[in-house]
Amino acid sequence: QVQLVESGGGLVQAGGSLRLTCAASGFTFSSYTMSWYRQAPGKERDLVARISSPGPSTRYADSVKGRFTISRDNAKNTVYLQMNSLKPEDTADYFCHALLGSTFMPLDVHWGQGTQVTVSS
After folding, report:
1. pLDDT digits (tens, 9 = 90+) for 84-121
2. Residue 97 φ/ψ, nearest 5 degrees
3. 8, 4, 5: which is closest to 117 by C-alpha?
4. Other CB atoms closer than 10 Å to residue 33's CB: what's the count?
């Protein structure tokens, strides 16, 4: 069965770093565009970073550009989000997302369960 399992979240002080990991299984990982979304309390779920299938093109939200880096290892069926210079406004639940096709023609979509990131000041 299809699984996306996030890990690496936690509590960190402002200015610190975290690396989130999303382990995928049950589908042809290299064929899927992989993304990280986040959702803060009372806010909509927003795209943070995206990496193409099979790589390496990336896209970032303006709010994280220069601080976050998305990468993938297709041999390990894993996508990462390296988060540096963290700010309190980065506090949110972070979700891994897999897309086959495109937003205009989505053929298959999967979501992870999320991992919480809390940045204290």
Report:
1. 999 999 999 999 999 999 989 999 999 999 999 999 99
2. -140, 135
3. 8
4. 21
